[in-house]
Amino acid sequence: MQALVDSARRKESPLVVGLDPAPSRLPKELQHLPSAEAVQVFCRGILEAVEPHAAAVKLQAAFFERLGTPGMEVYGTLISDAASLGLPAIADVKRGDIGPVAAAYAEAHLAVYGASCVTVNPFMGEDAVIPFLEVARRLGRGGGVFVLVATSNPSAERFQGATAPPLFEVAARLVAELGGGGSGGDYPDAGAVVGATRPEVGRRVRELLPGALFLVPGYGAQGGGAAGIRPLLDSSGAGVLVNSSRAVIYAHETSQTDYRKAAGEAAKDARDELRSAGVRPA
Amino acid sequence: MQALVDSARRKESPLVVGLDPAPSRLPKELQHLPSAEAVQVFCRGILEAVEPHAAAVKLQAAFFERLGTPGMEVYGTLISDAASLGLPAIADVKRGDIGPVAAAYAEAHLAVYGASCVTVNPFMGEDAVIPFLEVARRLGRGGGVFVLVATSNPSAERFQGATAPPLFEVAARLVAELGGGGSGGDYPDAGAVVGATRPEVGRRVRELLPGALFLVPGYGAQGGGAAGIRPLLDSSGAGVLVNSSRAVIYAHETSQTDYRKAAGEAAKDARDELRSAGVRPA
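ok -> structure tokens follow
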């Protein structure tokens, strides 16, 4: 996690920009290109535009996988482009498998494609998380793992709340057990994905994980505002990286300006809003 | 699911052969090739050898993803090779995301790469499953989705049993709710992944899903034997497809014969053992 934390402090920004490139939503001037190429040009433009305002970028693997092998080429190129710009990449892959299978996914996204961090699904228990931590530690680049704990869509809330204790508590305890090791940095290298839409859930997860770094989706287009972040903060007002995807990368749809300029301004606004709400950059 | 069911009946076999190709375990005569090419030659040989005995093949996506874009090329080629041999492919991807992200994963594996079925992780609730069903239905090729319900590794058992009701029951109910629609075939197109290692869990999942098709891992190398399958059968002695991966594809490691011959024999033995145990082919 230290690579993300250092970047957040250097940029004085807790903002993560999510790259969720749907070909149909790309700007008109890129629509004549083959899909994978259009996505690459678009995302490269977004990376350069948001770089001054964002701590990191998060690549939604599905949108690249959707484009077949040319999409996976672009995925790798963008992770490396982001690194060249000083932006660590979070591979939002939500992989959830065990043992050698989990190790193969970890090698793929952290070593072969070169992301700094990954998101992981804990449905199969700690065996689904540990191989990712092992690969991140072996690589020694300050990477880490964000385990899905409390996601923010309605059906996730139903599923994760259908039991006693609720599933998000079981997942949070799993992260707490794994979080003792790690890089010796300011945060354990096992963090949590925690949505910003239910304050009472967020508060409870923070109680269970007082020292963990949270990756917070659901900011911007998904409806969670800066006020929704507050219950997730640690005792020093930090401990969160807040992701905004569509509200930043598709800002051109409502602004009538160049997509890069629109995305850069949207990223700056999001960062400023988070700062004004008292969110400290890690 | 109907494509799998038809194939199982035609072959009189409930066996699925899992392709989990780890480059270090390939036969010596392939070790001089670049990894992706070695994996392709090896898996193509396995496909031809097991085709007479298996209802379907299951590709473990991680082992292809691990090899970068050349690995994903091989993944697509093998799915198409399997189809040419009359073997429907199950893409064991265990993806778990929602809305447009889940739809993108579904398009990738069912449409772009062309698998017949996929495995899906339900941690984010029904929003994580429905987009896969929608794509499978739109394609109209008799495909479907296997939702992780009760997996068989120890840490999954701990995680999935840590709540009341246990998580596997919540997941089974989710499958039951989704299973009403579908292709109008013998089984709903929402099935379940259910391990063969805990009879009491298997029996309970079958109670909750009396008419569903189960994909059963944990047979062979993972320790579940044919007796472990019995609690999972439906009232007609069918309703399961049983996966064996390592015990088939790495049979050459203990037999000193050609890897294709060894795999073909291991597949035939596994099918015969399942038949002798009274498992009907769907």
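Chain B is about 45% helix and 15% strand.
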